[in-house]
């Protein structure tokens, strides 16, 4: 991978016209999706909490690092609850055998940004030398009886605020979609709030159909516990 | 279990008043939920097709017995896609060691009906001597990051027409809810069409909250295949 070109100094109106470098990379951001492991639980816990804050749903947030650790990573990736971590770095990613799971070799893309990103929480979300966790997606298999095929359901997809509107969410969602195709699955599904116009526009641009007629029913809390002694 | 009382012959206005038997069972229907196995695939395939007809969605129906067999029953019950079969009989269920899975011992209830049920498809759905398949529910684990707990998602719940409005759907849904409680899970969720007022009323009576703000996004067919070469 070529080293990024240094930023150009401020230029007067050029005469003769300035010769641009062949590959003008101003502020490269190296971005990677990889499978999460138990080591990522502290980051995942903080990300889920940020999502609860963003959705004004902190009163429903009851996850702890311990409860996440005990309920996640208990099965093979893609067979049950699975998490892709989104990591960023301003330098190329190091050779990283620790994260090289043969079921999903990490995918790296380079984003060329107009401006460098100021991440006020870089230290909190550091996941290695110069690497920072920027988001995650949690998904698991679902099943379509009409297709007689599994698919994936995306429970959460989240990118931290300073990394939004740059294509990183698209990278996370695409990673899940590609994995579904690779496994011969029939569908990828997720939910969106009906007033979240920006998200709906984004998902439609990704090729998704937003289904207007279906409503989700949820049985939880005391209403669920009431079935303890049924039958 | 007491043998059912024979139906009473037509009576003139009684004088002195007729003495009712202590336990007047007119038309008992024995109903059982049990774990499905590969042996049930022919019944399951027919039930899914009936569901497609009911929903006017036969153009989306692509399941075959072979594709169902190869994608279902590949994991422990409750860890992945799981099916409860709903069976009925006019006589008590026989001792049935074949279906006695320790993970879910069959649950039997007796429904006392005003009239016996005429099942025009009893032969098609026969699953053993005098036993008839009346419906099914297919569900699998989902996950709530806020609760840091798994739950169940119900993909399909279906009762054949002649057995509807008798409490059998409630029995199927309750069986899944009870199993969720037993496993310490946090939620049971499923979907309903917004115009299906009867179903919504039924689900609310079961304790479910119908969430009005969420929409399902679906990526399928060519829109999904487009991600094959991404990244």
UniProtKB/TrEMBL annotation, chains A, B:
Keywords: Acyltransferase, Transferase
Record-annotated membrane-spanning stretches: none
Signal peptide interval: none
InterPro entries: Acyl_CoA_acyltransferase, Diverse_Substrate_AcTransf, GNAT_dom
Biased composition (Pro residues): 1-19
UniProt region (Disordered), positions on chain: 1-24
GO molecular function, one term: N-acetyltransferase activity
Residues covered by the N-acetyltransferase domain: 88-231
SUPFAM superfamilies with a match to the protein in the record: Acyl-CoA N-acyltransferases (Nat)
Pfam families, per the entry: Acetyltransf_1
Name of the protein in its database record: N-acetyltransferase domain-containing protein
Lineage start: Eukaryota, Viridiplantae, Streptophyta, Embryophyta, Tracheophyta
């Amino acid at each position: 991978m070529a080293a990024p070109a240094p930023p150009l100094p401020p230029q007067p109106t050029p005469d003769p016209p300035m010769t641009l470098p062949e590959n003008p990379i101003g502020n490269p951001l190296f971005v990677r999706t990889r499978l999460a492991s138990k080591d990522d639980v502290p980051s995942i816990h903080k990300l889920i909490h940020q999502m609860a804050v963003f959705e004004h749903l902190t009163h429903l947030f009851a996850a702890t690092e311990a409860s996440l650790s005990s309920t996640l990573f208990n099965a093979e990736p893609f067979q049950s609850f699975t998490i892709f971590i989104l990591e960023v770095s301003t330098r190329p990613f190091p050779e990283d055998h620790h994260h090289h799971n043969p079921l999903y070799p990490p995918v790296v893309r380079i984003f060329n940004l107009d401006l460098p990103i100021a991440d006020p929480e870089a230290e909190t979300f550091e996941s290695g030398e110069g690497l920072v966790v920027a988001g995650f997606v949690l998904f698991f298999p679902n099943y379509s009886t009409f297709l007689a095929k599994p698919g994936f359901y995306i429970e959460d997809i989240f990118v931290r605020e300073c990394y939004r509107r740059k294509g990183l969410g698209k990278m996370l969602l695409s990673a899940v979609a590609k994995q579904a195709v690779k496994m011969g699955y029939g569908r990828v599904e997720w939910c969106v709030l009906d007033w979240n116009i920006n998200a709906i526009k984004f998902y439609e641009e990704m090729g998704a159909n937003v289904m207007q007629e279906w409503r989700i029913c949820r049985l939880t809390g005391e209403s669920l516990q009431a079935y303890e002694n049924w039958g």
